[in-house]
Specification:
Oligomer: single chain
Order of helices and strands: HHHEEHHHHH
Structural class: mainly alpha
Strand order of the largest sheet: 1-2
Distance between the termini: 22 Å
Length: 175
């Protein structure tokens, strides 16, 4: 993993969303806004356990009533309601991070090869999961969302809580 860390470029949630939309189209799995939110969060969680020094993306994750949310993705795709997102409706980098990239489009071809391969494994694990199942696992009692949600919309789930939770899941798997 040290080679990954030395080359780790910053990504945004839009990069991960575009990865999910790309593979959703390729593998024939429709992605609605809820599923996109949950997968983007779950991928962040697993990657934060695998590479704790470097979060997968820069965007904060908020604890909202219906679970972990990345505001920029929510705002871009909320008009779809429960309908599948059009696969060519790619996510754009949030304005607060645009200065870090050459353009506004979050292109997945800039991803580090090792990170991309891990994301592909995560995609293969979760691609057929229903939005309802993803809601259940992101709302788990004692999980990061549960520990953070206080009824407001502006409470950020601390990265450390997410990392600790997913590292604990890895330890449970290892037993």
């Amino acid at each position: 993993m040290s080679a990954i860390i030395k080359q780790y470029p910053p990504y945004t949630a839009a990069h991960i969303a575009n990865f999910i939309l790309f593979y959703g189209k390729q593998d024939g799995f429709p992605i609605d806004n809820l599923k996109l939110q949950k997968l983007t969060y779950i991928f962040f969680g697993w990657m934060s356990a695998f590479i704790p020094k470097y979060p997968l993306y820069l965007d904060p994750i908020y604890a909202w009533k219906f679970g972990p949310v990345i505001k920029s993705l929510y705002n871009q795709y909320k008009h779809y309601y429960k309908d599948p997102i059009k696969y060519d409706d790619y996510a754009w980098i949030d304005t607060q991070f645009r200065h870090l990239f050459d353009n506004d489009k979050a292109e997945i071809n800039i991803m580090n090869e090792e990170i991309y391969e891990i994301l592909k494994l995560l995609w293969d694990k979760y691609k057929s999961a229903s939005s309802g199942y993803l809601v259940d696992i992101t709302h788990e009692k004692g999980g990061p969302w549960d520990k953070t949600y206080d009824g407001t919309l502006d409470k950020v789930i601390p990265v450390r809580i997410i990392q600790n939770y997913y590292q604990g899941v890895i330890e449970q798997i290892g037993k």
